[in-house]
Automatic annotation (TrEMBL):
Protein name per its UniProtKB record: Transcriptional coactivator p15 (PC4) C-terminal domain-containing protein
Annotated segments matching region Disordered: 89-127
Recorded superkingdom: Bacteria
A single GO molecular function term of this UniProt record: DNA binding
Signal peptide positions (record): none
Source organism of this protein record: Aminicella lysinilytica
Length: 182
């Protein structure tokens, strides 16, 4: 077997991937081997580039395919991780909110569901309106009236509200506080 000398010329340094304890670096470079057109080259090099370890060479189109594949993989992971984090935050939010509702109602069932605006916040205050109706006044601009819907001739504007069916089967009315007739 003939001992042929390998000739190389580092045309461009791209970056160091890692540094080894033995002083060698794993680098990405653009290298011309034996006078051939340059290729992307990933391998370990001594500090002075006089010695090298085994590596891999890639044509430009192969490097682009590799980078694209990694980018797609990484983007999927980022999106999946973000979705999982959002689901955890939403679950924690509704667990905390429902726990506060349960505690605010002194052991009664919460007045809304996770999808219902009738659920109360930490600063919500409940006022007994008599005849089975409860006024739940929140820290926001919403006021909730539980019980049956009033039938006392209020205008549509006064009842600019959304109606939701509570967990106990009663209807809840949510209206802007400036439109609350009571």
């Amino acid at each position: 077997m003939a001992n042929t000398e390998i000739r190389y010329e580092i045309k461009e340094y791209v970056g160091t991937v890692s540094r080894k304890k033995n002083g060698w670096n794993r680098e990405l470079n653009i290298v011309s081997w034996n006078g051939q057109p340059p290729k992307y080259d990933l391998r370990e090099w001594s500090d002075d580039h006089s010695h090298m370890g085994k590596g891999i060479t890639l044509f430009a189109d192969e490097m682009k395919t590799l980078v694209d594949a990694y980018t797609k993989y990484r983007n999927r992971r980022v999106v999946d991780d973000a979705k999982a984090d959002e689901a955890k935050r939403n679950e924690q939010y509704w667990n905390d909110r429902n726990s506060r509702n349960y505690n605010n109602n002194a052991g009664t069932e919460p007045t809304g569901t996770a999808d219902s605006p009738a659920a109360t916040s930490t600063e919500d205050q409940q006022i007994d309106m008599g005849e089975g109706e409860t006024l739940v006044e929140g820290s926001g601009s919403m006021v909730h009236k539980q019980g049956t819907l009033p039938d006392d001739g209020l205008t549509d504007e006064e009842l600019a509200a959304t109606v939701a069916l509570g967990l106990d089967g009663t209807e809840s009315v949510c209206a802007e506080s400036s439109h609350v007739p009571f």
